Amino acid sequence: MANPVESVNLNVDQAELQKFAELAHKWWDKNSEFKPLHEINPLRLGYIDEHASLAGKRVLDVGCGGGILSESMSERGAEVTGIDLGEKALKVAQLHQYESGAKVEYRLISVEDLAKEVPESFDVVTCMEMLEHVPDPAAIVRACAALVKPGGKVFFSTLNRNPKAYLFAVVGAEYVLNLLPRGTHEYEKFIKPSELASWARQAGLETVGTKGMGYNPLTKNYKLNDDVSVNYILQTVKSV
Question: How many domains does the chain have?
Fold first, then answer.
């Protein structure tokens, strides 16, 4: 792993980093606070692989945390680099790959700094469940666009900002169903698809697909659908 990041104005919320640092040791516990991430991972992995054909591709996972998505993309045959600013989460990711045998390069570096270091180096970039946790999400989008090769795909997933999303993602998930720890999300940081698509367009990325992700509290199952009113994935491609 790289040495501690030296950038002065990091695009990061220290309270958010601390929040996830305290839970870092639970990343791979499928019955912990990270259970929802484990349950949605097959869905997002399948969507990414279907549209980007991961095998043989050089892939960057931005905000990789403990490596759940990074490892699964590696298992599909991709050459994966995972980056995060959470040192504890990255250590957990590194330890877990010793057990799993997955081959992922993990780095403690901001996406903005990596974009300066190795622009247009990746065939695919993923940034999942991260944008709603940073002060300047548009800057993350620009950096992701800078890192992907022309013609390459960038996938973002986040939460829509509307009353239904507040009801389902905050009240329902955190207070009623206890799917997530209370305080996981701040409604003001949720992002409308039109806003994310606009940031992507300004960064040279064309939106080519969107998918919603729904949860059925009766069956306790997640599924991809066309309802983007709460959780959604935005698929983009960089102009050639």
Answer: 1
Q: Could you tell me the CATH number of the domain that includes residue 218?
A: 3.40.50.150
Residue 1 within any structural domain of the chain = no
Q: Is residue 3 part of a domain?
A: no
Considering the entire predicted model, what is its pTM?
Answer: 0.90
Q: Which of 127, 115, 122, 111 is nearest to 150 (CA)?
A: 122
- Please list the pLDDT of the chain residue by residue as tens digits (240 residues): 544 444 445 888 787 678 777 778 888 999 887 888 898 899 999 999 999 999 999 999 999 999 999 999 999 999 999 999 999 999 999 999 999 999 999 999 999 999 999 999 999 999 999 999 899 999 999 999 999 999 999 999 999 998 887 776 665 554 344 555 555 667 788 999 999 999 999 999 999 999 998 877 777 788 999 999 988 999 999 998
Q: Is 182 annotated as a binding residue?
A: no
Spatial separation of the C-alpha atoms in residues 81 and 38, rounded to whole Å: 19
86 annotated as belonging to a binding site for a ligand: no
Give me the domain span that covers residue 175. Answer: 8-238
DSSP secondary structure code for residue 53 in this structure: -
Q: Is 61 known to sit in a ligand binding site?
A: no
Residue 84 is labelled as binding a ligand: yes
